[in-house]
Amino acid sequence: MHLDLVVWLNLISTTAIVAALIFAALQVRQGNIKRRDQAAVTLIQTAQSEGWTRALDLIGKLPGNATAADVVMPDLKRSVR
After folding, report:
1. For residues 48 and 45, what is the distance between their CA atoms, to the nearest angstrom?
2. In terms of Cα–Cα distance, which of 74, 70, 45, 76 is closest to 58?
3. What is the largest CA-CA distance in the chain?
4. Radius of gyration for the alpha carbons in the chain, expressed in angstroms and rounded
5. What is the number of alpha carbons within 13 Å of residue 64 lying toward its C-beta?
6. How far is CA 73 from its chain centroid?
7. For 3-55, how does the pLDDT look when each residue is reduced to its tens digit (9 = 90+)?
8. Average pLDDT, integer, range 49-72
9. pTM confidence score
10. What angle do CA 48, 78, 45 make, to 5 degrees?
11. How far apart are CA 79 and CA 81, in angstroms?
12. pLDDT, position 56
């Protein structure tokens, strides 16, 4: 009977260790994904100038059926400079 208890305790211990390793691997993976996403956001923020952001905002406000005349706006030309 004593041997059965030892076997069960070893099984429980091994299961706990395997579960902890799986959890740690998932946490490392999640951390790497977050770090990659943050690096991409930082890169985009660094590359964008104020004029580029303003021009992108104006382009985003154009209607879906905009013509070439709608696109050539004084505000847009000023933003691109």
Report:
1. 5
2. 76
3. 89
4. 28
5. 0
6. 34
7. 798 899 999 999 999 999 999 999 999 999 999 999 998 988 888 777 777 77
8. 77
9. 0.52
10. 5
11. 6
12. 79
